[in-house]
Amino acid sequence: MKEEIRDKISLKAKENLSYTKDLLKNNSDIVFREFYIGKLNAALIYVDGMADKRLLDDYVLETLMVIGPDITEVEEIKDKILTVSDMREVKKLSEGINAMLSGDTLMFIDGLEVGYVIATRSWPARGVSEPSGETVIRGGRDGFTETIRFNTALVRRRIKDTRLKVESKTLGVRSKSDLAIMYIDDIVNKKILEELFSRLEKIDIDAVLDSGYVEQFIEDNKWSFFPQVQSTERPDVVAAALYEGRITILVDNSPFALIVPATMSAMFQSPDDYYQRWIYGSIIRLVRFLSIFAALMLPALYVAVTSFHPAIIPTKLAYFIAASREGVPFPAFVEALIMEFSLAFLIESTARLPKAIGSTVGIVGGLIIGQAAVTAGIVSPIMIIIVSVTAITSFTTPNYEMASAFRILRFILIIFAAVIGLYGIMIGIILILIHLVRLKSFNIPYLAPVVNPDIDDFKDSFMRFPIRFYKKRPGFMNTGDKVRQK
């Protein structure tokens, strides 16, 4: 049950200090510092390890205890004595305590029915480094960290516009995690912005430990395999999305930013597409779409053709497949499932292992075990080739969640193919397309711009036209300022 903190701040600093000590008892990391400003009693409360002690010593305690006794009015302390740049008044004790638990320092002074929150947040933080999951050949090497203010600064560095807005919000009854909602005021679709705030207001949970929590609460269809919120570690991707009229959510303690609304075409775009010349970006993007189609279809086609439709295979190839499968005790369906599960196990174990031995396990699993399985007659060589091509093509997708969705759908298509062959694959593809056509992200069609064709939007979908052709922002976003290039 939520513990209620009183809101009233007493005129006596000792009373506020006593109440706070009782509220936060048995916490060895919380420091209560009582001192005097002349004859006035005062108190500081902060969390050891999260507050900057040097700032408190040099600019708060020393200033107040040396110069403070000369003041005539207690209200002058804030405006004439304290030499800190960032501080504010709080009229509710609960608000001050929440700020203190976030790394700021809470101060009470006799005679004031308000508290002072001094910005002293300073905790160990990971430095800005290159994102491990979204590497690029050309482009910035900086990525988000777990500190929300570092992340907003990385975006600000790329958008020096007074119309860029950063609104703060707190989620989590107990964790009180900080969120930053970023958008460009004259570009963003106001209806989408209102819908986002409405969904965030409905979140009522003990703790928000990562942006993944928020993503699962605000997505449109929780049963869909496809990600309806784009996640990224790159500030340049966030900046590009903001310029298109999208909205970004940054969560403290998470290096992943969320971008809404999301479309399927956006999931296949990489910063490399825009930093290189348009012809290279277009070809790479087409390769990406063909690769994911091959990753989805190849194992299912193998099962369907070998089990139901061998007549459509060229004669020599059919003889080769039959010879390679001689001695394999399992049907093609079971053979495909064995290799697909083995691939899934290998990918998952490699991802969880330390980097020093992860590559070694990949080599052992991919080469030695695969060759041993063929030698033992458990699977055929052609199946090894198909699974290898499937693995390679699935890694071309820039978005991990989208690649995972197609991995699950690949299993489903294999089952359909094992039941009624090519007809099963066709039924599976039709069902997937029906779902995609109906799927939306914040009321924006997931397949935009395909489902609402606009010739301008197609310039940045399956291919990338030269940048000089991008005169307007995406039409399906219905943005405020629609022109981005004259």
From TrEMBL:
Gene Ontology biological process terms in this record: spore germination
Keyword Phosphoprotein applies: no
Pfam family, one: GerA
Residue intervals passing through the bilayer: 286-308, 328-347, 359-392, 412-437
Source taxon at top rank: Bacteria
One cellular-component annotation, GO: membrane
InterPro entries attached to this UniProt entry: Spore_Ger, UPF0353/GerABKA_families
Keywords: Membrane, Transmembrane, Transmembrane helix
Residue ranges the record marks as coiled coil: none
Family: Belongs to the GerABKA family.
Protein name: Spore germination protein
